[in-house]
Amino acid sequence: MDLVLMTLVANAQVRVPFQDCDPMRVVWHGNYFRYLELGREALLAELDFDYREMERQGYAFPVVDTRMKFVASAVYGDALTIQSRLDEWENRLKISYRITRDSDGATCIKAHTIHCAVGLEDGQMRFASPQCLLSKVQVWQESQS
């Protein structure tokens, strides 16, 4: 199997709480970014590169760009699945997301976020991913073969 072609995908679940909704009980659009964070945490856990590990290695990976397409509404009480996929990692992290409603499989959101490594010691953006991240991806890929 060609390791370069393997794709890391992770799922997270959330049930829409009342406080995430507008007066019509529809999820307020800004809350979907919090749901993306749940998906990103699940994806990074698969790599054994959660936020504590990033910090331990001396890096943060802030969001530098994002895009979100609203396809269908989620409402109070809906069970949602957040699927996250690692699309790029060599020079930046690009993570794609699809949020679906469990009851009917409808896609509610399609999105992506782009993250760049920033050194915690100097606050400088890195224009290539640090070796600690590349090594984590390589270990994950090797574990899949």
Bin the helical content.
Answer: 25-40%
Biggest β-sheet: count, sense, barrel? 5 strands, antiparallel
The count of β-strands is 7
Structural class: alpha+beta
SSE pattern, N- to C-terminal = EHHEEEEEEH
Radius of gyration: 16 Å
- Show unreliable segments: none
Would you tell me the overall average pLDDT? Answer: 94
Strand order in the sheet with the most strands: 1-4-5-6-3
Helical stretch count?
3
Beta fraction: 25-35%
How far from one another are the termini? 7 Å
Shape: globular
Report on the architecture of this protein.
By secondary structure, this protein is of the alpha+beta class. 26% of the residues lie in helices and 32% in strands. The chain has a five-stranded antiparallel beta sheet. Strand 5 and strand 6 (107-115) form a beta hairpin. The chain is globular. The relative contact order is 0.22. The model has no long low-confidence stretch (mean pLDDT 94).
